[in-house]
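Archive maintenance. Older records in this collection stored only the sequence; we are now back-filling the structure field for every entry so that each record is complete. The fields below show one back-filled record exactly as it appears after the update. Entries are processed alphabetically, and Cyclopropane-fatty-acyl-phospholipid synthase family protein is next in the queue.

ARCHIVE ENTRY
Title: Cyclopropane-fatty-acyl-phospholipid synthase family protein
Organism field: Amycolatopsis carbonis
Length field: 430
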Amino acid sequence: MTGAASRLVGAAEKLLGAELPLQIRAWDGSQAGPEGAPVLVVRNRRALRRLLFKPGELGLGRAWVSGDLGLEGDLYTALGAISGLIWERDEAENGGVLSALRDPEVRAAIGELLKLAGPPLPPPRPPEEVRRPRHLHTRRSDKRAISHHYDVGNDFYELVLGPSMVYSCAYWSESSTLETAQRDKLELVCAKLGLQEGQRLLDVGCGWGSMALHAAREHGVRVVGVTLSEEQATYARKRVAEAGLTDRVEIRVQDYRDVSDGPYDAISSIGMAEHVGAESYLEYARDLYALLRPGGKLLNHQIGRRPREDESEYQLDGFIDAYVFPDGELAPVGTTVTQLERAGFEVRDVEALREHYALTLRRWVANLEADWDRAAGLAGAGRARVWRLYMAASALAFESNTIGVNQVLAVRTPDEGTSGLPLRPRTWHG
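Back-filled structure field:
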């Protein structure tokens, strides 16, 4: 009798209309597929039931997070091989799903997979998956979403991020380590904001306090850092106390919409604006504008996506929305600039750092893989699998220009029109 792996490969290739770029090892020990390719390990029939109930990336994600699917070989190679068949596949290419189902070979392939999967359908969702109404962006829903992503455990994030505890794109040179690249990113932000001793800085989405600490220690500013994560705030306050900077740095658990003690000389928002949401973005920009003194500067560091012909059809990646960033939304950089300008800002500089984020993510994945057993023990095996897949796939997305990351420097220019910037402001690049 033919092994399950050969039957799986045959059915998958009929459905995809292309040769499967991976080997498959099935639960019965059989293996099939192109030699030398990474091996997708289908550990049980439940993995098929997950894929049949939710075809595409969400079904794959559920099978991966639950451990029903595994991989032997390089994760980046495997993700790159299947990206064109799963994530980049245009449904209309073959006349859509209904047209495909009229094909006898496609129907036969689905029937074969149903036989292999067996009853019952569907399996329960992994506990790591978020189940809630989408894109509410109320104070309560935003706090829940932030808690889901960031309150995984500070020890887990220390393992992945390293001593810098910076969870955003680093700024690399050929001789950088992850630590020096993150320090250089923080200094780049400070230089763009032109921070000077005695000024007030608001750090929106302050994370574990790295930006607040760097700005206070290296530039003598007074910093208020706000986060919605209780775990982050506790960790950041401890770091501030240990650095002897409690007189200059205050860490609050507070929504940016509730900050009312302006004006500030500068605002940094690093990797936070992706959580704001399209419908709330103009409010976000106006709130930050109102918190700045005339002449004050905003440095908005934000992941962006490529624009689409029909923006109304855009939806966040299903896996990321369900497992990583609930309610997160990405916008093209042009949309971000427009919203900042509508709020009253004068946009003075935009810098793309796409390749820098790919390098950063690969280092984080390496940290996770190097201490996998401890990571799984700290956060749970399912959560560790979520982060490994999410970070590796994101690295490939940055490398392929599917998504990018941009630093936008904007000024609350006074009525008389004096921005306060030098004629050649890019002195931060040396």
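Update note: The domain at 139-429 is CATH 3.40.50.150 (Rossmann fold). The chain has two domains: 4-117, 139-429.
Entry marked complete.
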